[in-house]
Amino acid sequence: MAERAYGKVPERGGGVIVRQAESIDKALRLLESDRFDLILMGFEFPGGKQPEDLLRHIASLEKTLRTPVLVLADGAQKAIRDKFLGLGAADCLLKSPNPAGLKWIVRNILDSATIGQGLKWCGSPARVLHVEDEDDWARLVHSWLEGCGWAMHRVNGGRELMRFLRTCRELPDCIILDLTLPGNDGLELCRELKTNLIFQRIPLIVLSGRKEDRIAAMENLALNLIAKDEHTDRELPAMVRSVISQQERSAGVVVRGDIRLEPRGKKVFLDNRILCALDENGFAVLRLLVENSPAVVSDAMIRSLTKKREDYRRRNSSADPTPGTIPVYVSTLRNRVGDILGRRIVRLHGLGYSYIPDCN
After folding, report:
1. CA 277 to CA 337: how far, in whole Å?
2. Under a CB-based contact definition with an 8 Å cutoff, are residues 205 and 129 in contact?
3. What band does 140 get if pLDDT is binned at 50, 70 and 90?
4. Are the CB atoms for 303 and 296 separated by under 8 Å?
5. Are 17 and 53 in contact (CB under 8 A)?
């Protein structure tokens, strides 16, 4: 097993630090004391814990702590590959590549993890993944969508697509898939995505040069097919915008003017840029204020959202035993969201609080 440790790579010279573990038990101990960019692992070990145990351990960690795993299963059956992929491996190779090929695969996995876990991807209000092997079409699609405020990433084919999905911290809100990928049946890739319990929830828009592919694409659970013609530059952005709007409504996203509240990750955006991530109570209070804006929200309504409300109910008392709690709590929220949003949370004495969008 080989890994490159976070924080131990020299700033210059491109050095790689490799740690070796002769068993899964030792690998698990290494993971407790260090963080790694990649785990390169065989598919069976004599005695002790097995690769499945390591993959389950990684899956149990917070997303920010998960390490991509590449399994080398030379000579194994396809069922072994399917099992490891189902447990969250970035990839599983049934035939060992030559050194140059392995280096390319490792670099591709590391690049996918870097982009998929980076601020530009994870900190965007929406994420679009484009699967396209032709550079000219990739540039065109990017030019049509780049002004919409979404994070965009392009992969060249099905293998890169699946690696990216298995290593990114935030799944895309929409996938745009070209049906005519080299070495891949685009329809087969549709089926692979839609039979995966995690990836099947991602809306899939198919691009094709043939309109007659529409029925086949929809039979394979694509949301829609858009033909590559003179109308694509208008039809594709409209379709993606519609898909993302539906995703936002389903996820309970709140958008009011320049502020956006995203329940996934409890993120707060201002002008499509991530401002902060709040705890559960802070997010609930800010959402209550924004959704009711410009109406006043009473202290009692705010108090009802905090975890202490169960204590109040058990005491069978409607009175607030700590009258100063809510002002302190709101003050903390103001500090957390920063000056611009903080000034919009206004105290109306004797009434409560209000979110005033123009109060800057």
Report:
1. 9
2. no
3. very high
4. no
5. no
How many C-beta atoms surround the C-beta of residue 97 within 10 A? 13
**Structural domains of the chain in order of their starting residue, each with its CATH number:** 2-96 (3.40.50.2300), 123-251 (3.40.50.2300), 255-355 (1.10.10.10)
Q: Alpha-carbon distance 340 to 335, whole Å? A: 10
Q: Which helix (H) or strand (E) holds 191?
A: helix 186-194
CA distance 170 to 150: 13
Q: Residue 289 — pLDDT band, cuts 50, 70, 90?
A: very high
How many degrees, rounded to 5, is the angle at CA 173 between CA 237 and CA 66?
Answer: 145
The packing angle between helices 51-59 and 24-33, to 10°, is 30
Question: Which H or E run includes 261?
Answer: strand 259-262
- The DSSP 8-state label assigned to residue 309 in this structure reads H
- If you search the block for the tokens 């899956």, which residue do you land on? 59
Q: What is the pLDDT of residues 195-209, one digit of tens each?
A: 777 788 888 888 877
The token pair at 7 is 């924080």
Q: How many CB atoms lie within 10 A of CB 89?
A: 26
pLDDT score at 305: 74
Helix (H, G, I), strand (E, B) or coil at 298: coil
Closest CA to 162 of 138, 136, 129, 133: 129
Q: For residue range 32-85, list pLDDT tens digits in order.
A: 888 888 999 988 888 888 999 999 888 887 766 778 899 998 888 888 888 888
Burial grade of 317 (CB within 10 A; 0-12, 13-18, 19 or more): exposed
d(CA 298, CA 287): 14
What one-letter code names the amino acid at 82? D
CA nearest to 24, candidates 48, 4, 58: 48
